[in-house]
Amino acid sequence: MTTMLTKPNDPQPQEWLASDLSLGNVASYKPFTFVDGEGVRCSLYVSGCKFACPGCYNKVAQNFRYGSPYTQALEDQIIADLAQPYVQGLTLLGGEPFLNTQVCLQLCRRVRAEFGHTKDIWSWTGYKWDELLVESQDKLDLLDLLDILVDGRFLEAEKDLTLQFRGSANQRIIDVPASLEAGEVKIWANLKR
Ligand code: SF4
Q1: Ligand 1 site, residue 169, Cβ cutoff 6 A
Q2: How many domains are there within the chain?
Q3: 154 CB near ligand 1 (under 6 Å)
Q4: Deepest of 11, 48, 72, 182, by most Cβ within 10 A of its Cβ?
Q5: Atom of ligand 1 lying closest to residue 58 CA
Q6: Is 43 helix (H, G, I), strand (E, B) or coil?
Q7: Where residue 82 sits, what CATH number does that domain have?
Q8: CA of 20 to the centre of ligand 1 (A)
Q9: What are its E.C. numbers (predicted)?
Q10: Using an 8 Å Cβ cutoff, are 142 and 101 in contact?
Q11: Domain that holds residue 63
Q12: Is residue 38 part of a domain?
């Protein structure tokens, strides 16, 4: 007997909008982590995602109501933590950062204002690169602020726990500025596997 694998949801372009969906909630904040990208990082997990990937690593955070509101005090704490010289940058995860752009844009703009490009910004997303390019302006604005995007749904059929920073082989670690400039996906130069 074969087991049917269910698939994540596939949105139409601009079908899902943060302005309709996000409640501005945060599932958790983890300062000084080593697993959410290169170097020591501060990770913000926003609440709410509609991809509903079977096997999602953070199912509770698919709910937009989960967690607690993003606050100015939390933002100030993140900025203070990022200021530590051994911290390489900020990571956005979820949930879906691109369906919580109110929170993510505010934070990323502050990071750029305070640190310029001395701290990098990574984000995970369930959207594929090409899907994001035809998405709503808030998503494009967030993409513009990133250094690295890990793209695509988590697909159980392509699950591979040996990959760097991603759970399935379809997902890519994308150099965002290089890709925007080239007009095609450019993979992160430090990729090992
Ligand atoms: S895109 Fe990420 S957070 Fe959303 S359901 Fe899939 S694995 Fe979970």
Answers
A1: no
A2: 1
A3: yes
A4: 48
A5: 8
A6: strand
A7: 3.20.20.70
A8: 18
A9: 1.97.1.-
A10: yes
A11: 24-182
A12: yes
